[in-house]
Specification:
It is a single chain. The chain is of the alpha/beta class. It has two domains: about 1-160, 3-Layer(aba) Sandwich (Rossmann fold), CATH 3.40.50.620; about 175-265, Pantoate-beta-alanine ligase, C-terminal domain (Pantoate--beta-alanine Ligase, Chain: A,domain 2, 2-Layer Sandwich), CATH 3.30.1300. It has helices spanning about 10-25, 45-50, 55-65, 75-80, 100-105, 105-120, 135-145, 150, 180-195, 200-215; strands at about 1-5, 30-35, 70, 125-130, 155-160, 220-225, 245-255, 260-265. The strands form three sheets. The protein has a three-stranded parallel beta sheet with strand order 1-2-3, with helices on both faces. A three-stranded antiparallel beta sheet has the order 6-7-8, covered by helices on one side. Strands 4-5 form a two-stranded parallel ribbon. The structure holds adenosine monophosphate.
């Protein structure tokens, strides 16, 4: 049971680590976490350089959450020089939605590469990923299913709920980089998602999402309602209000120079925000 992370662990990660512990016990397997700031998934080297790192603290948190093994490899362990570490074939959800795939070119190829390597290096049978990175969760799930034949078995992908600050801001290692003013503005992202999630009508939900972000002065890269699994549009109009058609509201925005993403469920107003 694996929890892949880039470290700088916070309460959101802790909840994934505890979930991994419980799921590992149910299956009778060890629980491991990886701490690896993967250079191949950053499209700006300044972003990679400024990513917060504190392995000693991360190891203590893992221990407190009952994790058996912390795997914090050097880059040359993940990508041994002279070996070919091809990027796996990307699933459609990593290339077609026009969301993270468009705004962070190269990100999902890097994510698929490192996740696939970590699955193999750790011989994982299951892995926990956060709903906070919704598109990533769908990408990893689709990749794992596609690799079932190659690997000889499926690495089961277990989703973990997003943990939030008291004002609703999704916890993120990047929140540490927000100025006090930007931190207040950032609360507008979850506020906009929650208000929109209560709207019954698809177009109104998207309208309320955009309006609320504007009211907070947030200029979003995207603020959309999509099919929860494929992340494609359009969501057919007949889906408004109908149960059993999972959709997702997703936002990415730069606040005070820090790029933040968040999402929540939408079922024509029937779904509770997560
Ligand atoms: P990262 O270290 O940012 O790559 O994230 C490692 C894992 O933690 C990913 O599966 C994320 O989706 C998940 N994660 C990040 N933030 C949160 C959060 N606020 N709540 C729950 N899981 C999270």
């Amino acid at each position: 049971m694996l929890v892949p992370t880039m470290g700088s662990l916070h309460a959101g990660h802790e909840s994934l680590l505890r979930l991994a512990r419980r799921e590992a016990d149910r299956r009778g397997v060890p629980a491991a976490a990886t701490v690896f700031v993967n250079p191949t998934q950053f499209n700006e080297s300044a972003d990679f350089d400024s990513y917060p790192r504190d392995l000693d603290r991360d190891a203590l948190i893992c221990e407190r959450c009952g994790i058996d093994v912390v795997f914090a490899p050097a880059p040359e362990v993940v990508y041994p020089p002279g070996e070919d570490h091809a990027v796996p074939v990307l699933p459609d959800v990593a290339t077609r939605p026009g969301l993270e795939d468009t705004f962070r070119p190269g990100h999902f190829p890097g994510v698929c590469q490192v996740v696939s390597r970590c699955f193999d290096l750790c011989d994982a049978s299951a892995a926990v990923f956060g709903e906070k990175d919704w598109q990533q969760l769908q990408v990893v799930r689709a990749m794992s299913e596609a690799q079932r034949g190659v690997r000889g078995r499926l690495v089961e992908i277990i989703p973990g709920e997003t943990v939030r600050e008291p004002d609703g801001l999704a916890m993120s290692s990047r929140n540490l980089l927000l100025s006090p003013e930007a931190r207040v503005e950032a609360g507008g992202i979850s506020e906009a998602l929650f208000v929109a999630a209560r709207e019954q009508d698809r177009d109104r939900a998207q309208g309320v999402l955009a309006d609320t972000l504007l009211r907070f002065g947030i200029d979003a890269e995207y603020a959309v309602l999509r099919d929860a699994r494929t992340l494609l549009e359009p969501v057919p109009r007949s889906h408004t209000g109908g149960p059993g058609v999972p959709c997702r509201l997703l936002v990415a925005a730069r606040v005070g120079g820090v790029r933040l993403i968040d999402n929540t469920g939408w079922r024509g107003g029937a779904a509770e925000p997560t």
